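Annual report, structural modelling task.

Input specification for the magnesium ion complex:
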Amino acid sequence: MAGRRDWTRETLAAGVRSGDRRALARAITLVENGDPLAYEVVADLYPHTGRAYAVGFTGPPGVGKSTLISAIVREVRSRGTEVGVVSVDPSSPFSHGALLGDRIRLSDHFLDPGVFIRSMGTRGHLGGLAEATLQALLLLDASGKELVFLETVGTGQSEVEVIGIADTVLLVLMPGSGDSVQALKAGIMEIPDVIAINKLDHPAAKTMLNEVRSILALDTESEWRPPIVLTEATRGENVPELWEKIEAHRAHLEESGQLDERRRRNLAGEVFAVASARAKQHLERAVADDPELRRLLDEVQRRELDPLSAVREILEKVFRIDRDAGSAHTP
Ligand SMILES: Nc1nc2c(ncn2[C@@H]2O[C@H](COP(=O)(O)OP(=O)(O)O)[C@@H](O)[C@H]2O)c(=O)[nH]1
Ligand SMILES: [Mg+2]
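The model returned the following structure:
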């Protein structure tokens, strides 16, 4: 087995491109660790990305996102499609032992060379999770996976920057996901492209379906009406129908020319999100390491300096942003 020292920028990039699993696993680990080699490899591979179709699975913990992904992987594998999965779900990470009690046996997928599944930890990523997830997605894309699935936990806005890279966003709910329905209703959560209401055997599933339907009916302007599918992920029930709806959304984006537009917007959003995360971290470190900046905060606390004057001084010192540039009065 190739150890850490055996990979170079060239061999790693070539390995990922040829679809070598060990190269891919190593590259994603380097990404997770914020290793400079990972950045070089992704930079080399970036021109070879853009071929994979990315589907984001979001929704509250426990609704069945991982189980649905597993069932859909089975569905797309029956057609020979190669798929990569990145799961950012600390509550129920994909692992070799996960979900073994269910009929959908994830361990089958781990043995399938056409499937690459990776759970991402939430430990200290340099530019936040968004950065590591984006890089992992690009690596899977470059390795030739035709589909990439991204799982993130989300009930409101916090997942936006991670899921923001997906071409199609699937929101998974189940009876009892009332908070998410409220968030949709209030416009706090963005309307997804497709909705699955999982655990359809639950007596309240139909009620939830009607509730979600009535919320979506309020939007009379969008040309895409998000389809809602009732599923039972553990038994794979209605999973082919759900997959059809995801493919229909993809066809809609491709035929209307919106896919390019959406990707452009998504990539711009990711670049901005990662830059913001890094800037924030840089700022926090600078303040923590600098007694003079900490003194400013003490002065604010003692009411010797007003908060906005402190902001100006900090921005000037840390980012060299001059006083007027950060001001709301700048024309
Ligand atoms: N009854 C029932 N249980 C399900 C269904 N889908 C998933 N589960 C179970 O719900 C639990 C959480 O599923 P998981 O996929 O980990 O949810 P996630 O947190 O959204 O990824 C697991 O015990 C699954 O076996 C379903 O359709 N029906
Ligand atoms: Mg999960």
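The mean pLDDT is 86.
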